[in-house]
Specification:
This protein is of the alpha/beta class. Helix content is 43%, strand content 21%. It contains five helices and five strands, in the order βαβαβαβαβα. It has a five-stranded parallel beta sheet, with helices on both faces.
Length: 121
Amino acid sequence: MQKLILVSDDEPTVAESLEQIGKNLDVTVVADTNKKVVDRARKEKPDVVVLDVQQKDGLELLSLLKTGRTTKDIPVVVIADTDASDLREMALEVGADGFISKPLGKDFLPKLLLFLSGRKN
């Protein structure tokens, strides 16, 4: 079954790059705005959400995803333009399953799929 990755980032190039890499890996990557990502996660039940926590309301969106009845078990990997330890700690305390600093690089998606394959469902 094809994996579904939901991306919410204020930089459209991030989602576009992941979409291109996803095509080569037989992975569906879809992007949505921060305002719609929680609703879309509820409806589509992605295998993972990639969330830019530095975008407007990023940590709040993370909290909504990790406390929502239908979304709490969806892994959320947060990304940010910085590797600030305070932001990393806050994101992990709110419930992030991982924290990655940008730029993501071409190996990000294969590593993300490896992470998913190691999780118990």
